[in-house]
Amino acid sequence: MTTTASVGDKVVCQLLPGKALFQLENCQLDEVADQITLIASSTKTTAQCPLCQQLTSTSS
């Protein structure tokens, strides 16, 4: 298994919408299983509740 940031950046651009909304934490490329695992976190500090539409904030 290989972990590489350069592959991760290219994969994020192709797979995740709006790269500016995400920060890639880790990217693992498993060539044996033909599998890519991305761990990403949101860069937004607020989000809208899908039920009540009230803005919420993330804990830092």
What does this entry look like structurally?
This protein has 60 residues and is an alpha+beta fold. The chain has one domain. Helix content is 18%, strand content 42%. It has one helix at 5-15, and strands at residues 2-3, 22-30, 35-42, 46-48, 55-57. A three-stranded antiparallel beta sheet has the order 1-2-3, covered by helices on one side. It has a two-stranded antiparallel sheet with strand order 4-5. A hairpin with a 4-residue loop joins strand 2 (22-30) and strand 3.
Backbone CA Rg? 15 Å
When the domains are counted, the total is 1
What is the tally of beta strands? 5
Sketch the major β-sheet: 3 strands, antiparallel
Ends apart, CA distance between termini: 31 Å
- Average pLDDT score: 76
DSSP helical segment count: 1
How would you classify the helix and strand content by structural class? alpha+beta
Q: Shape, please?
A: elongated
Strand order of the largest sheet: 1-2-3
Helix content: 10-25%
